[in-house]
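Q: Protein A?
A:
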Amino acid sequence: MANANSNNGQSPRSVESAKERGAYYTPEPVVRSLLSWAVRSTEDRLLDPSCGDGRFIAGHLKSVGIEQDPDASATAMQRAPGALIHEGDFFSWAGSTEERFECAAGNPPFIRYQRFKGAARARAIEFCDTLGAHFSGLSSSWPLFLVATAHLLHRGGRMAFVVPAEVGHAPYSSPLIEYLAQNFSFLQIVAVRNKIFPHLSEDCWLLYAGEKGGSTKEICLSILDEFYYCDKPPPVDVRVALSAWRCIWNWRLRPFLMPKSARDLYERVAQEDDCFRLGALAQINIGYISGANDFFHLRLSEAQDLGIPSTCLQTTVRNGRALPSSRLDETTVERWLREDRQTLLLRLRKNQELPNPVRSYLETARAKEVSGGYKCRTRNPWYVVPDVKIPDFFLSYMSGRKVLLVQNAAGCACTNSLHTVRLKNKAAQAQIRAAQRSLLFQLSCEVEGHPLGGGMLKLEPREACNVLVQDSSALSRGDTCIVEDGIISLQAWRHYAPA
């Protein structure tokens, strides 16, 4: 995400390079606002830990910027000739410098853990560990930048930053919030529904922390439809007690985007005796990963032409679009086969004696190519697809308007485009089926899941385990309206417009 405004005029190659660095430059109204929040005096020294092209440090005379990209650093020097710019890794510099600052502002690099790796990640995580903020290896880069920056502020210091909306739900944002709450008297997060960066799929919010050296027991949340220039942080809409954020809402701010009536109802229902979390009733996991879907999934006509016996084949669900709304049965599977869909998984087992037609298929040129792919070459033998399960229900991994919870009456497996739901006790089947009809279940998926680009809702297995299961028939008509309002509001925040 970081240091960014737009890619206008950039080539596709330079856009990809910016994406890898997490660099997208910040709009001017946001820059001026954050500088106004952080800077109180012309004598204040300002730090931007990832200054990019220098937009923030150009806005205040006594500024220091750190930037590891040489091209961006050169641009920053031209834009902010009065600033001091260090070219290199911020965490190396932060770990050795004796400089301290009255304020900090910027737009830190939003680099996902897949690209934030190696020595740079190890150095950043180790540095934050020494400060008492403990991040996992799955953390994106931006919260570590903010922890390290906070450490470099004088007592009474302030910081104002662009942050991804993931601050409202991502597990790796909680060590950051805990650290800031322990080290600042005031912590405010500004949620902005309409995109600050219109060209990005990523939503961005704003974060302000004031009066370093104190502590706070609450997060002040401001909720805006649109962000416009403001010379001080906007009014607070909700004061979120850290105790509730931790214990009731699982370290998430996303629930506070829905109306208070929906939030109060959700909290009340969650405590009722006949309400369960999905993880208490079932095991939720991703489906299998074949490593080469087109090779391992056959059409019925292909399997017959190759002579592969049915004992080596498993009917499977390739993606959620193929599923009916509530129950997958043999009639649907038979239709898939008649339509000659690619829905037969080549399911082989270790130490299995391979029939000759299967052996011939595994010796084709295509098979040799597939066997060298990463997922396959790390398996022994390469052609055995692991973790093939026959679940009781399928659950949508990514959803638009409605999260699907579909009974598996056909004995199918599924790829990792779906979650498998395997009941811990068969008696729970009635409860799960009630959830299929439940508006509360849909609201809970919105609360516990998180937005993905394009308006989609994503449910990780750990999030799915927290989804509430209760029959909506227990709700009054008034409560049903409140639940519907909650669903509509959270869908609007993930940019999925009502029908």
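Q: Protein B?
A:
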Amino acid sequence: MKRYFMTLSILLLLPVMGWGQLSIDETQTIANSSNQPAPVHPVPSERQIAWNETEFYAFFHYGMNTYTGQEWGDGSESESTFAPTKTPNPEQWLTAAKAAGMKGGIAVVKHHDGFCLWPTATTEHSTAKASGYGKDVNIPQLFSTAAQKLGMKYGFYISPWDRNSSYYGTQEYIEKVFIPQCEELAGYGSDQFEMWFDGANGGSGYYGGKNTTISIGSTYTDRVMYYDVANLRNRIHQLAPNCVMWGVGGEARWIGNEDGYAGTTNWSTDSRNDENNNEQGTEDYWLWNPGEVDAKATSGGWFWHQGESVSTAEQLFTFYMQSVGRNATLILNLPPDKSGELPSATVSRMTELGNLIKNRLGTDLSQSVTASATRSGGSFSAQNLVDGDKDTYWATDDGVTTATLTIDLGQSRTVRYVMLQEYIRLGQRVQGFSIQYSIDGNSWKTASSQEAMTTIGYKRIIPLNGSMSGLASGYTARYIRVNITKSKACPVLHTVAVY
């Protein structure tokens, strides 16, 4: 009987004990109390976002080919052929690029011929055996120092394909040459923003390092195998955490042409091994793999050639609009000549281009913005679109995938361009939009443009009543209306601007 009453007493006490354990902790906050929109996957890494924000940067093809007049050397060139007539001047290169409005540059420091523009422990085919002002010159060191001095981003092109190395196509090439070279370059600055890996490789041909004609596979799978890409990414990210591995590296894609344009519809999602749809990307693909447009500013090849001319500022502005204005970045090639400097004509043209971009896209006319729908429970006001802060954004409620943004310019003006930016930390969402204009805010007309108004992504620039070429003629208007007509989830934009 005693055992019965003792058991009963314990059972009677259990609820009281349980209530004490389950009492509410009023200091805790509810998850997502600010009602942040859920991301639409995939989303970019922080290094990919920083890469996208670079937008426009220079390519400097300089090396053995500058002195042989070739575009692709075969690896048999004598090191003494690299003979600059002056000490190469990367600071002059980058100063010209900065005048054009570029935020950084990529220096080619090893092309397919395998010649390294720095004294390296991995090969004798380097500036250690060059002649004249090229003897022991260290382009990576000069370039990184100049970029840091000018406050510009920087990185290096290193060809995975090496026609000089007798190890090419073997595991020894990965372990003794390629990855050690990449690690040497990463050592020239942990703040590098991009390392550029050309997809050209293999195939049948003469290899100077082997002194014979051989055949090596050239498919995407071959490249991944020859260069141990997964291990390469991991090792470089340890040394340079913000360095995006371009092309073969798999963190940003070649746009699919070298003619200065991306697709009018351009998704930042795409595969790593399919180069058939690079201009548009692939909607709903599982990998964030944004596009970069590479284009030449000169009439010759990628390397400097005697007698070449520089494209006009208008032609280069078209490249800018067709790349940066279509959710891609633009890397514009400016080849130094045999002196190791950019020709004066190139330098002058970069200043012209910078002034042209600044004059057309430098002054935002927007005064205020209102929205037909705004997300509740947080700071998602339409005014976030014009506050100059890339980390604040406008959004709608879940399930609301269409909306209208009305931009007031304060007075009637001639408007030529509208710029839109999604908050891509939460993914790329918008699938369709349109633009209207009005003088009085009551009567609206649809703006015509040769641009398909589909994707936005990191940045989209629409020329009103005109094409990407030349100055858009524009309209007279006080109000601009952006209609989001289709979106994968609630639209999320951080900036709108009218020029």
